[in-house]
């Protein structure tokens, strides 16, 4: 192709540099839907993030996964007593801080839910190790 020829309408000289976002939605037992990265914790709004910023972003995302999976487990074992509506928590799916409060409140609801903490912390530590993050306790 010479410089004077034009490209077909499906081609471009400047490639698209952003992938299409794919999200998986899960319906929680409390009736709310939550995305696989519901709070966009994996996004770093810089063209060249530092290693520390990448680690921080990854850690925050892993915490979200830990909170979500802990809530799913508690809901399956205890039920409605630990739903945000019953616990009096408003809009826990609106931001990560409220979601964290929801998870901690549900985990500390009673002796049965408190007994899950070692299990949750062990699973979270495994998740951290799998993702090259120094393990720590979630609860």
Low-confidence stretches: none
Span between termini: 62 Å
Mind summarizing the main beta sheet?
A: 2 strands, antiparallel
Strand content: under 5%
Helix % is 40-55%
Number of helices: 5
Description:
The chain has 139 residues and is mostly helical. Helix content is 44%, strand content 4%. The protein has helices at residues 51-77, 84-87, 96-107, 111-114, 117-130; strands spanning 25-27, 33-35. The mean pLDDT is 90.
Summarize the helices and strands and which ones pair or pack.
Elements: E1 25-27, E2 33-35, H1 51-77, H2 84-87, H3 96-107, H4 111-114, H5 117-130
Antiparallel strand pairs: 1-2
Helix pairs in contact: 1-3, 1-5
Could you write a compact summary of the structure shown?
With 139 residues, the protein is mostly helical. It is built from 5 helices and 2 strands.
Pick out its properties:
two-stranded antiparallel ribbon, 4% strand, 2 strands, mainly alpha, 139 residues, 44% helix, 5 helices
